Amino acid sequence: MSEVIVIANQKGGVGKTTTAVNLAASLAVAEKKVLLIDADPQANATTSLGFHRNDYEFNIYHVLIGTKKLKDIILKSTLPTLHLAPSNIGLVGIEKEYYESGNTEGRELVLKRAISLVIKDYDYIIIDSPPALGPMTINALSASNSVIIPIQCEFFALEGLAQLLNTVRLIRKTINPKLSIKGFLPTMFSSQNNLSKQVFADLRQHFQGKLFKDPENEYIVIPRNVKLAESPSFGKPVILYDVKSSGSEAYQDLAQAIIA
Q: Could you tell me the CA-to-CA distances from 250 to 11, 29, 77, 212 in Å, in that order?
């Protein structure tokens, strides 16, 4: 049974793209067939896998306006079982496109319909969403079985979280009753930093049943890690850049927790 997972948080800089790319790659290394959909106009997930604007003609924007099928834009990555549906800065115009066309009915289900045509080809579809609760994030939540919410272990970490949780509840009530919160993922954790420890303690207090655990029953946290930060500039997920780094090991643990 295929599973569609969106990585979402309307706050920027919390590790959404890092999580989407490295979770997708870790699942692929675990011999799962994975499609990573870059639904963020910044296209950072696309460049993190080594693709640039001149490498492809069509992207997720063309799927959302109906001129291309999802299968027509898919790119093969260096990992045999990891495919990418790329993005482009032109995606910022999707909201304007919908409203100017006058065709707003069902616009929040466009991505879901597109995914339905390829879902049988993959074990997991991972969606990287933009840092906003706009049409793209709503489309991504509507198309998904579950959502992973990265939360950075820094000041104001929980700010705005209530708004996202309300959005998830609303979508569950109206469009997608099967949507669930798969878990909260602490990111940018530093064991040397008291603030990181405090934020993680808060997360454990509020969301204990929704934090991921590794095979040793320890909580999975994504550490501050130089290799994680460097790998996108080389166009590689961290598992191909430095498989033994703490960041790579954390995302491999997350992949195993999801498979389990």
A: 22, 14, 22, 11
